[in-house]
Amino acid sequence: MKPRYLLLSLIVALLNACGGGGSSATGTTTTGTGISTGTGATTGTSTGTSTGTTTGTNTGTSTSTGTSTGSTTDTTTGSTGTGSSTTSGTGTSTDTTTGTGTVVTLEKKAALLAAKLGKPSRLLVGLGSVDLASIQKQSLTPDIYDQYLVGVGAGSWPTWNSPSGAYVQVVAKNADAMGAVPMFTLYQMASNGDGNLTGLANATFMTQYWSNVRLLFQQLRIYGKPALVNFEPDFWGYAQRISNNADPATIFALVNTDADCSNLPNNLIGVSNCLMQIARKYAPNAYIGFPPPLFGDLLATSVGFLQKLNMDKADFIVMQTLDRDAGCFETSPQPTYCQRAGTGWYWDETNTTSPNFTEHFALAKSYNVGLQLPVLWWQTPLGAPSTQKGSATQWRDNRARYFLTHPNELIAAGGIGVVFSAGEVNQTTINTDGGQFKTLSTNYFLKPASLP
To answer: N or C: which terminus of the chain carries fewer CB neighbours within 10 A?
Structure first.
């Protein structure tokens, strides 16, 4: 089997372009629609604009409590306690009732997912893009262990081990060794170049693409334990940019040529739904998430764009802050691996000047409410705070410190956890951060933040 470190030459070429993190901007809070099905009592609080639907068999009393700033209308049809209830009004919270009659509010969804992953009800902390030996050397105990799956065709991730696709089992085994849930970041759409979407209409490319997706979830079914999958960072932002009026149906893509998705349309909506459909069919033990487009010019319409893609049917939202350490972008001249226009890479920890962490969490909350899903931060930089910008592998950043010392702010934004990793090989890692992650994570685990 091919060790992870021998794959860096292939991965680096693809990852150098991976990002979309940028500087966080203030987002517009958007409300969404939720579905409740089951038996039992309903309790919820509404303070914004929400629409919820409850359908099921009621064997007891249905009760709605909370603060409402609008009108609520309940309609019950049927006989002898069996019927449906529809509630509409103003609020920012949607309740979901499970088949056992347990009500799950949006705030409870993070804890429910953590339980499905076999993890405690606290903010989870993970690591990615680092080898097992480095983690074990520091006696670290991450909750999540993330690795990339990149490429389509020759040299792509299925070829990294034998038999085809066995790399998934390698990562899963490593995650098991540290008591972590394996996470896979599927990064195949960038195979033709960052932002190059011509593959969507190419029969050869898409045939191989769907074959790889199926292989991933077939491997996860063999693994048989909970796993996380992050679908295509940056891709959704590039796609939104070329769509007409933020309508994913206007982007052609070959979808129903694949036998597992013959019922879906040949457009971007078909792509997102095919990813979910294949995942649900082959690996019900896998939990899937999509990263929202975080390009500044797309924020005003991105929630609606994701809703049209039916991404509220996923299991979580993949949130990002920045794909490089702040110091890498701040240095002048910028190194080749950190060339991007803009300012404000290093956020204000006092949250008095922009950009800052409060603004970012407000943006994350808008996706949490808009899609009614918990938020998992991913590829969060590992740089340490400093007045100096730093140098290769030791760039400055303050996100790791802030996140691990303000965990309740992540939870308030809908967070289930945060995964720390370098988005490029010249960035700060747990091997070059002066022991910062070990100290911060150890202190956090001594007094973890509980999920609602």
So the answer is: N
